[in-house]
Design goal:
The chain is an alpha+beta fold and 159 residues long. It contains 4 helices and 7 strands, in the order αβααββββββα.
Amino acid sequence: MAITDQQSASEIVHASLFFERFVPAAIDQVFAAFADPDARSEWGAPSDTAVLIYDKTDFREGGTERFRCGSKTNPDIHGTTCYLSIIPNRRIVSTETIDVKGQRLCASLISLELSDHAGNTRLRLTSQIASFTGSDMIKGHEIGNNASLDNLCRYFEQA
């Protein structure tokens, strides 16, 4: 993803994205799939050609995680997640920044809420994103989250 000087100086594009899934697993299992970076790496990449690699993990309130993602041959997108609020089996609230080649692409506030739904889990994710590179980042964020959450559902369907 090449970023031009025009894009880096453009106005910030804001969006609030909402996602919902009914995951075929109990809440504690779904929460564990988010808490465990190995599990996240397994279902979190949005496609078969992509990879999600955790370089630093610290899943706790106040904890920070660093990851790389992108194509399996060149995971050059760098992210940092900071956990603001974690209530086991109920919610995870975090911030996330995404950078490529030292340039900040976006910043997000992400709220994940879990609730029981007939023995399965209702998952609601809200991402409030500020893109510093235009609306393509918003669209990519939407596509990536949808694909990852679909993968999460398949992760449990295959278990």
